[in-house]
Amino acid sequence: MTEPSGGSSDRARRPVVVPALALTTFTAVGITAMLGGLREAPEEPEALGQGAVIDQGQFTTKVVGSRVTVERARTQFEEDKRFVDVVFDVKNNGDETASVGSPPQKIESAFTLASFAGSLVKIDPAFPKDAGPNVFARSKGDETRQLHPGVTSQVILRYQLKDTDQPPEKITLDVAAFEWESDWNNVTPRWKMVATEAGDKYLPEIKARVTLSVKEGDAV
Q1: What are phi and psi of 193, to 5 degrees?
Q2: pLDDT tier, 96 (very low <50, low <70, confident <90, very high otherwise)
Q3: Which of 86, 52, 50, 90 is nearest to 69 (CA)?
């Protein structure tokens, strides 16, 4: 009886050798595919300092600087007050009045804000909660909480120091930006903070990281 061509199926098969490097590559590609593909590492924000001008979309912001300000007591029964001020010149590029606002208490809640100070998403070192900040604008000598269209106003971010507190030598601020776009459920465009989805959160993209030396200022 003649065997079928090709020989017996019981013949031992030669093992196939796969280089370890190839296995590592295949494994890495598989894991990457499971995780949704290759992701680019986020770019480091632009490092800026005093005098820098930041294009925030809704605002054009010049960083004037940071200083210690002393408010002299008005009576003998009061005491002098000391503050750390961060000063900006802010132009509202929009067609409507914008709010000066306040920095967000948590960075993950920042993307819902459309105010200028809402874009100051991180301040280092962090001040105590009872230190403020108080944020206000000065326009034509008056203090206000509004930024009018096409107008440049001086905005002051102010933290109060206690008697025993020493001001920090430097302050670093992470600054976000805004873009003019519509929501998925609303075709009317508006200014929205530029943010990236991270799980169930939206984290603001950092447009610039500003580091300022805190200087001695004048009494007010």
Answers
A1: -70, 135
A2: very high
A3: 86
